[in-house]
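Sanity check

After download, print the first record. It should look like this:
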Amino acid sequence: MSNSDKFRRQSQEDGVYVAPWERAFKKVLTPFEEFIHRQTTSGLLLMIMAVLALILANSPLAYIYQQIQHIDIGLSVGSWSIENSLHHWVNDGLMALFFFVVGLELKREIMVGELANPRQAALPIVAAIGGMVVPALIYFALNPEGDAARGWGIPMATDIAFALGAIALLARRVPKALITFLVALAIVDDLGAVMVIAVFYTETLSIDALLAVAAIFAMLMVLNIAGVRKILPYFILSIFLWYAMYLSGVHATLAGVLGAFSVPARPKYNPDRFSQQVSELMQRFNDSHVSGQSIMTNDKLRAIVQTLGNGIHEVEAPLQRLEHAWHLPVAYLVIPIFALFNAGIPLNLSGFGETLMHPVTMGVSVGLIAGKIIGIAGSCWIALKLNIGVLPAETRFTQIIGVSLLGGIGFTMSIFIAELGFIHQPELLLMAKTGILFASLVAGMTGFIWLYLAGSKNG
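Expected structure tokens:
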């Protein structure tokens, strides 16, 4: 008898049927461990899609690759219609889901996470601010005027998936608190990027549409305050919120952040009440159970199990449920598709040196590499000298420098801002993307090596 047959037989004898591939589901992960796992896998997928996009853009399939992105897709109902290119739908529509998850992460971190404790939050907040301001200043110093100046926000961003993917590979050589520090820093960085997009990368504004945005968001908050925990009303109103934001002139993806902030973060039952109800239901379950009888033939058992399932949803906040549900499709589908559509740039190897010396490419790459090191590590050093915040547990400052290097991986959000800043300047957009890819590669490799050398096997 094979091992799998023995395992199946033993499982059946214990009253549980478990196929061999289902064993992994018995492992219980904390929300933070699950977050790290998914971001790590997302980082690997991002890398694969970025390489694939580069291959497509520099192969005989380049024309088809570009044509697919410009396929127009529309929706019309009566006299109403909306139509955009496939590339536009990915950047404005699909990425709204990415920003929705970012918003959920931000709200959770502010309420109960690393950003909830002022003492613990101080250092990553200061680090994130320094890591945004210094790169922007470096870029602006190299591109002080003209159309190129609009790219100052590009080197501000840190790609949380790539950065966490790199540091997760070093999990045995870095303290867990350092990973938590990077997560908090990247989330504050995301908040800064969202604010920059909303304030500085909006070309024209429609007051009527903005009033509609405010009205719909107010309706969402009314649902929150009224204690509505069903997801469907929030989903329907968020679709209208996205469309109103799309018409307003402010980038439509920011509707995802507003929608996330309206999601209730308080569960219906507290743990004590849930535990009491579960105990009562399990007692009723045991009383109704007949040994050897299937639940399919016992209506009382089936009703009790259904009630248990409903209670499980009520003890978990809607915010947590949505974050858990949407992390997977966003990490494994949305972000990789974004990379496939946006990372494909034509490379002219003979003139690559000249491309790297272009002011926009220089501003982005120097901003992401040197700017992040100076901004993150420098601001942390000053904060610690002024007794603002504390180093993460079991962490040395040399490891903070390594995190500063990983902060130079700008990819997803940097490319997103570049698309907004240079929407009408394809040549400058090409230079910016080249700088992002070059800087992200250098920052990722040097950061990984630095942390590997700075860490210890027992760290």
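If your output differs, re-run the checksum step. Summary of this record's structure: The longest helix spans residues 426-454.
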